Amino acid sequence: MNKEQYCRRIMDVYGVIVDFDGVPGRKNVPGPIGENETLKAWSERVLGSDATAITFNLQHTYAPQTRMSTIKNDSRAAVQQTKKVVKSAVVAKQKKAQKQHDDEIKAIFEKYKIAQRHNNDIMRVDTEEVYGLIQDITLKPTTLELMNSLFKNYEGEPVKLILQLISTLDHRITH
């Protein structure tokens, strides 16, 4: 796990935005703060003994005459750390969604025991089997309507069906 992922987990567990130099000393963020735990004890327990330059990004109230350039400079590190933490969260969420999608497709193939035949170095799937798969996938209504229309009125080879689908999609996108 990289430092940004670890910092995101710290934010989830402790409700603080922290940054530090070094590599996290643990794989998992440990439990709650002790009643009288000091910053030093917390840092060693959570970040590890090698962590240095530990900073927390906190709200700060400024006087009205403070120059915005000062506030911008004070916020620079917090903004950079927040961007890294958010990016880490987005990447983790995308990976999880991709895995769920892959698992869904795999389960559908297993459910229907799709018989794939090797013909002229091209894997082919029966058109009716493909249509069955489409019914099990969550699609937007417009896409499902298009697929139903194509399969309902089509007889022939799957390759021709795919070409017809691409042509129809291209037509809908350009018009």
Note the topology.
Blueprint lengths: L2 H12 L3 E4 L17 H9 L4 E5 L11 H45 L4 E3 L2 E3 L2 H10 L4 H12 L5 H17 L1
Antiparallel strand pairs: 1-2, 3-4
Shape assignment: elongated
Number of helices: 6
Class computed from helices, strands and strand pairing: mainly alpha
**Assembly state of the chains shown:** single chain
Gyration radius, in Å: 27 Å
Side-by-side strand order of the widest sheet:
1-2
The biggest sheet amounts to: 2 strands, antiparallel
C-alpha end-to-end distance: 46 Å
The total strand number stands at 4
Share of helical residues:
55-70%
- Runs with pLDDT <50, length 5+? 114-124
Please trace the helix and strand order, writing H or E for each element: HEHEHEEHHH
What share of the residues does DSSP label as strand, in percent?
A: 5-15%
Q: What average pLDDT do the residues reach? A: 76
Write a compact overview of the structure shown.
The chain has 175 residues and is mainly alpha-helical.
Structure characteristics:
elongated, 175 residues, mainly alpha, two-stranded antiparallel ribbon
How would you sum up this structure, described in words?
With 175 residues, this protein is mostly helical. The protein has helices spanning 3-14, 39-47, 68-112, 127-136, 141-152, 158-174; strands at residues 18-21, 52-56, 117-119, 122-124. The protein is built from 6 helices and 4 strands; from the N terminus they run αβαβαββααα. Strands 1-2 form a two-stranded antiparallel sheet. Helix 1 crosses helix 3, helix 4 packs antiparallel against helix 5 (141-152) and helix 5 (141-152) crosses helix 6 (158-174).
